[in-house]
From TrEMBL:
GO terms for biological process: peptide metabolic process; protein processing. Belongs to the peptidase M14 family. It comes from Holothuria leucospilota (Black long sea cucumber). Its cofactor is Zn(2+). The keyword Zinc-finger does not apply. This is Carboxypeptidase M. One of its GO terms (cellular component) is extracellular space. InterPro entries: CarboxyPept-like_regulatory (IPR008969), Peptidase_M14 (IPR000834), Peptidase_M14_domain (IPR050753). Residues 1-22 form the signal peptide. The active site is at E304 (proton donor/acceptor). It holds the Pfam family CarboxypepD_reg.
């Protein structure tokens, strides 16, 4: 028997033994370096082969694998029509480590509770979740436990801050695009992500786009001595809601005096409701969350999960318990708003790369190769424009309900130019629902 076969057999037997006693597969009292993290991911993959797909998106500058584990109730290795793809990315800054451990434990939590917990089961039956425990494994390997502040280990092997390395919507980014950054950029081209979060440490707050703003506005605000101006995008209501969803389900993040302790190391500074606009905290160019939004139409927020970047191992479990519920609740928001398929009236074929946008909002969604699109929207009435060069644009008025998992299905056929271009059509679609007060409370 080959060594690889023996190893797989051992993992399966170990998983069965531990599972039969209700013991976790992943030790919560230790930090997992690259070797240990890889083993943990492989153990989960072997224990739950029908629910997990372990893959990588490339390597770090130091040659370490950038692992991702995809989890779903069925077919975790492939996309299913209209099943949204969501992701969490951690450890972008190598010395901000708790998110790395949280994603390992979140993966096991999802897998071990499927079929037992209704919230977990429903999410996995309707979503494919991609978890990337570390984007900067080289930086992690250099970091030291117990170092709460500072920058040692923050950067990649080339000394580059990966959260300043993405192409920026507002200004030119200097320096070479790093392998880790390029890997994520390519990943966004192969998977059509609807929702995402980037897990950090060093503060306690949920931050949302935009992180940057127009240079001319920067100069204006500086002249007014405003060093941190609010930079709103046209989906600001949705982003703020996503951030508040996380903070509202976190034991401490939503409490002002708790966030006061961690923000900017100042006892006089805090975050109302535990959330902040990125630029309103401090402006960042080359950030990952803005890139996700502008380039891929993915709604990503940044989660700062504690004041200490690299706490002692005995703090992992209590911090994980604080974040277990909000990590789940945030991903459920992918099932809010509108989804559908855009096809060609000529032959009913899917239309790729059509623009689907809310009228008066700037950033459109682009349809997948299957013609799919998703729009995360809060309750209300919206006018949706669907367009592509060579086709007649279509308008639809849609009423979005407040409940989760009540996403409005909106399929649109575009008239091919072969029929001649006609004025856009406006069709009203309404959905009658019983209001759910939870999201409305979060909006106030």
């Amino acid at each position: 028997m080959k060594f690889s076969s023996i190893w797989k057999y051992f993992l399966c037997v170990l998983a069965l033994i531990l599972g039969s006693y209700g013991e976790p597969l992943i030790d919560i009292g230790v930090y997992h370096n690259q070797v240990a993290m890889t083993s943990a991911l492989k153990l989960l993959n072997e224990a739950y082969p029908n629910m997990t797909y372990l893959y990588d998106i490339g390597e770090s500058m130091g040659g370490l694998t950038l692992w991702v584990i995809a989890i779903a109730g069925e077919l975790p290795d492939q996309h299913m029509s209209l099943r949204p793809e969501v992701k969490y990315v951690a450890n972008m800054h190598g010395n901000e480590v708790t998110g790395r451990e949280f994603l390992l434990h979140f993966a096991e939590h999802l897998l071990s509770n499927y079929g037992k917990d209704d919230n977990v089961t429903r999410l996995l039956d309707n979503t494919r979740i991609h978890l990337m425990p570390t984007m900067n494994p080289d930086g992690f390997e250099k970091s030291h436990v117990g170092e709460c502040y500072g920058e040692f280990g923050r950067f990649n092997l080339n000394g580059v801050d990966l959260n300043r390395n993405f192409p920026d919507f507002f200004e030119e980014i200097e320096g070479e695009t790093q392998k880790e950054t390029r890997a994520v950029m390519d990943w966004l081209k192969t998977e059509h992500f609807v929702l995402s979060a980037n897990l950090h440490g060093g503060a306690l707050v949920a931050s949302y786009p935009l992180d940057n703003l127009d240079p001319a506005k920067k100069i204006l605000y500086l002249s007014l001595r405003d060093l941190s101006p609010y930079s709103a995008c046209s989906d600001d209501d949705v982003f703020r809601f996503l951030a508040m969803t996380y903070s509202a389900h976190h034991g401490r993040m939503r409490i002002y005096y708790e966030t006061t302790r961690y923000a900017n190391f100042s006892a006089e500074y805090g975050f109302k409701d535990g959330v902040t606009n990125g630029a309103d905290w401090y402006a960042v160019s080359g950030g990952m969350q803005d890139y996700n939004y502008f380039e891929a139409g993915c709604f990503e927020i940044t989660l700062e999960l504690g004041s200490c970047k690299y706490p002692e191992p005995d703090m992992i479990e209590p911090l994980w318990k604080e974040n277990q519920v909000p990590l789940l609740e945030l991903l459920k928001q992918a099932h809010r708003g509108i989804k559908g398929i855009v096809t060609d009236t000529l032959d009913d074929s899917a239309i790729f790369n059509a623009s689907v946008r809310v009228v008066d909002r700037n950033v459109p969604q682009r349809t997948t190769k299957l013609g799919e699109f998703w729009l995360i929207l809060l309750p209300g009435r919206y006018t949706i424009e669907v367009s592509k060069p060579g086709f007649r644009s279509e308008l639809r008025a849609v009423e979005v309900p407040p409940e989760l998992y009540k996403t409005v299905r909106l399929d649109v056929q575009l008239y091919n130019g072969a029929f001649g271009l006609l004025p856009s059509n406006l069709i009203l679609l309404t959905v009658s629902v019983v209001p759910n007060l939870l999201p409305l409370k979060l909006l106030t």
